[in-house]
Amino acid sequence: MDKREFDNPFEDYSGETLLTSSGKLEESLASTLRKNIDNLLQNLHVGLADTDPGDYSVYSGTSGIAALYLHLANKLGDGRGAQYLQTALTYIKHPLNHLNGRRFSFVCGDAGPLALGAVIYSKLGQNDKTKDCINRLSAIYVTMYQDKSFPDEFLFGRVGYLFGLLFVQYHLGKDKIDNSLVARVSKEVLDSGRNLAQVDRSRAPLMYMWHEKYYLGAAHGLAGIFYMLMQVSDPSVQPIMTQLVKPCIDYMVTLQFPSGNCPSSLENMSSDKLVHWCHGAPGWIHTFVLAYKIFGDEVYLHAARRCADLIWKKGLLRKGYGICHGTTGNAYAFLVMFRITQDQKYLHRAWKFAEWCFDYGKHGCRTPDHPFSLFEGMAGTIYFLVDLLDPGNAKFPSYQLW
Ligand SMILES: [Zn+2]
To answer: Which residues participate in Zn(2+) binding (predicted)?
Structure first.
């Protein structure tokens, strides 16, 4: 079978510094980055003219583009902040008037446009519209609660909705979302995991299924569910974290392959193939790093280092440059390692993956289904390059809040 990745042509870190004394990215590197960001933004602009405005998801549609422009407005001090914010508004307005109420999560459903809308309107000083978005976001809970078959995973499920609530709290303040709502959703996720773990006599105190499989990765599985739960700071949920979530992360550490990669599901324990954020080590690494930050156990940092070494070897993917199952999603693994360790080896690796993306489209990668989208395409690549300008504050888009 053809290899899923390209051989990594880059030398690993040899001690050079990429930062100025004040911790910023060295100016010649930053200038190269900005040039490449501008080039890709022009290509994105052309590409988006042909995309389907009916897809309003963060994952593959217009809300993802709004998320990118909000990021540009927040991060690029180039005098175009107001213009970026207006562009973000343009991309979020249509979704806000056409939500279909079929899906509820942030990345694939209505919580994404509503939470992004709240933040964008707030930045523009339109407080009534901000409130309206927040009310509609909170109201989703009623529909979700009535559907007991609702999954728990990130892309479509309860923790995907939970992320929408946390996103608004993070950007606009804790008081903007009722904390009891955050606690209720978190407890439902915990109850659901406890029930399944008991029924299945699981080795972990919480277990989850999606489409009849025990998925383990960030998109549909345990890594994403525990990551979202660990981002909840509500005091009523915190004690449960140590009691229930920590042993689950301990269990996940035991599942890591000798290669450093991580399995996509319990049904696929012999298949060490996928090195994607959605399935594999590039998603798990975020869970291990956050567990290390919260619980302080070196075992998690060690597991994360093993993920990062594997991603360095096998992370330049033939599937393309996106964040879900592409090279920049994998590069975020290095940025989170840099955040937690301050080790410039990881910044070097992130930089090399960025250099790979400077030759966007020239490696013969397969074209994703949504080539300009946030999760599969060019918008995600640009998002990453912008984050690399300020590596100490980089956050995996629509997933990481700390
Ligand atoms: Zn994917």
So the answer is: 278, 324-325
